[in-house]
Amino acid sequence: MVISGEPDSTAMDAKIVLLGPPGSGKGTQAAILKERLGFTLISTGDLLREAVRLQTPLGIKAKEFMDAGKLVPNQLVVDLITEKVNSLNSGFILDGFPRNIDQAEVLEGITEIDVAINLDVDEDELVDRLTKRRTCKECNAVFHLMFKPPANEGVCDKCGEDLYQRSDDTEMVVRNRLKVYHDNTFPLIQHYEAKGKLANVSGRGSIEDIYHRMVRVIDTL
Ligand code: AMP
Question: Which of 101, 138, 188, 216 could disulfide-link to 161, CB 3.0 to 4.6 Å?
Answer without folding.
Answer: 138
